[in-house]
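Worked example 3 (structure in, sequence out).
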């Protein structure tokens, strides 16, 4: 497009671009615009990196602040987020930002790596198989649970949030015939009941009903399981959930379990089983698990998710249910999701040391 200007009565054709320049001032150099956009991209990448690193660092901050406790479960998302930021940085060729992004990703990968390294021994004979299931105040599907028990040849079944009504439904599905032993306390309309069902003889050391000792309102029995190849001491864990306003009680429950572990005889074969309401992102749980082997982690299963299932719109994203052991050889481990239960059951098979 061209416009005409009149100069001394003579019309001249003038390019429209030139005409616009006289009105708007000198045009901005084109090279300045990409540079400005690049700086904003760097700022955006830096902000995302800082947020992810800040959330990741919370892993080492032992706190009962509700937001901190929740964010400590986000470790896998930090690793995924850092990976996406690294890819984005490469695609956009923001080379100077690549070093801090890759550095943070390497640290996160090192922290996550042990969960993917298997130390289980599939060829060892199975002497004892334990399953732990939070049955959500007795609402879980009893038929599915007994099917899983039979499929995995479970010897000891730990039931947290057990109710008398649930035990009756479980017996209707054959639990009374399958298990010859049971100990614990089932309670109606509360999450505090706990029962142990076993094919091997059980000897109760402590029913774990004193909240002042256990650090929780839930029953946490301590029993000896006598297998054909030796005796294993089993402790049930079910500290309070870290709900808003209950995080101090939650931390006290983990601390009480830690104290119990420190009183153990060093030569005893031990399994701690149950809904710990905590995972490896929480310093209190890592202190408790130190010196013990988490079955799913030892099996190299990586990002294990046992909560939440039924009753929550969120997909399962964190492992709260654990089987911790000492002195035993892990053969295999896994999880089983149940209808009408907000936790997946966890199971593990162990070999006992030769006598």
């Amino acid at each position: 497009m061209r416009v005409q200007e009149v100069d001394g009565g003579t019309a001249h054709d003038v390019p429209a671009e030139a005409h616009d320049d006289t009105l708007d001032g000198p045009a901005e150099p084109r090279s300045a615009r990409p540079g400005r956009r690049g700086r904003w991209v760097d700022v955006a990448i830096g902000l995302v990196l800082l947020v992810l690193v800040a959330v990741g660092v919370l892993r080492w901050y032992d706190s009962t602040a509700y937001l901190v406790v929740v964010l400590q479960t986000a470790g896998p998302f930090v690793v995924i987020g850092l990976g996406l930021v690294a890819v984005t940085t490469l695609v956009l060729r923001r080379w100077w930002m690549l070093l801090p992004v890759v550095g943070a990703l390497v640290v996160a990968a090192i922290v996550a790596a042990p969960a993917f390294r298997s130390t289980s021994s599939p060829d060892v004979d199975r002497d004892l198989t334990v399953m732990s299931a939070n049955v959500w105040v007795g609402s879980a599907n009893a038929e599915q649970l007994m099917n899983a028990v039979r499929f995995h040849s479970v010897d000891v079944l730990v039931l947290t949030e057990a109710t008398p009504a649930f035990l009756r439904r479980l017996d209707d599905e054959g639990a009374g015939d399958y298990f010859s032993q049971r100990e614990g306390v089932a309670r109606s309309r509360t999450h505090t009941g706990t029962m142990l069902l076993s094919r091997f003889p059980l000897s109760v050391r402590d029913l774990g009903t004193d909240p002042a000792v256990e650090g929780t309102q839930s029953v946490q029995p301590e029993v000896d399981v006598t297998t054909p190849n030796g005796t294993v001491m089993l402790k049930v864990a079910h500290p309070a959930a870290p709900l808003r306003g209950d995080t101090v009680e939650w931390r006290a429950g983990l601390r009480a379990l830690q104290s119990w572990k420190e009183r153990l005889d060093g030569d005893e074969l031990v399994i701690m089983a149950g809904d710990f309401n905590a995972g490896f992102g929480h310093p209190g749980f890592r202190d408790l698990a130190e010196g013990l082997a988490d079955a799913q982690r030892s099996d190299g299963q990586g990002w294990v998710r046992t909560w939440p299932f039924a009753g929550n719109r969120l997909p399962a994203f964190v492992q709260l249910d654990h089987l911790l052991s000492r002195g035993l050889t892990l053969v295999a481990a896994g999880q089983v999701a149940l209808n009408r239960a907000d936790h997946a059951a966890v199971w593990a098979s162990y070999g006992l040391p030769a006598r």
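Notes: The first helix runs from residue 16 to 24. The chain is about 35% helix and 25% strand.
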